[in-house]
Amino acid sequence: DPNAPKRGLSAYMFFANDMRDKVREENPGIKFGEVGKILGEKWKALSDKQRAPYEAKAANDKKRYEDEKAAYAAVRTPLRDVSAAMLTRTGRR
To answer: Which sequence positions fall in the DNA-binding region (predicted)?
Structure first.
């Protein structure tokens, strides 16, 4: 459903979004997969204190997603159950 809320980003994804351009600048001509590998290594090397801002962003984004998901579910009309007999009659089976 294109109107469904977007899922929250993980702490790693916030980190990767912040660092991707810097990694590309430091390594001109680097391939896409290599960027991911370097980002993963940098993420693993971070201390808990260095990860904290990204964890906080992820927690806020998770809350945003949960709130939007609840609002979306409240507005969305549930689909009614269709029996197998109706599917056969309408040719959708």
So the answer is: 5-73
DSSP label at 3? T
pLDDT in tens, 9-47: 999 999 999 999 999 999 999 999 999 999 999 999 999
Residue 29 per-residue DSSP state = T
Q: How far apart are CA 43 and CA 49, in angstroms?
A: 12
Predicted structure pTM score = 0.76
How would you label 18-30 residue by residue, b for 16+ Cβ within 10 Å and e otherwise?
ebeeebeeeeeee
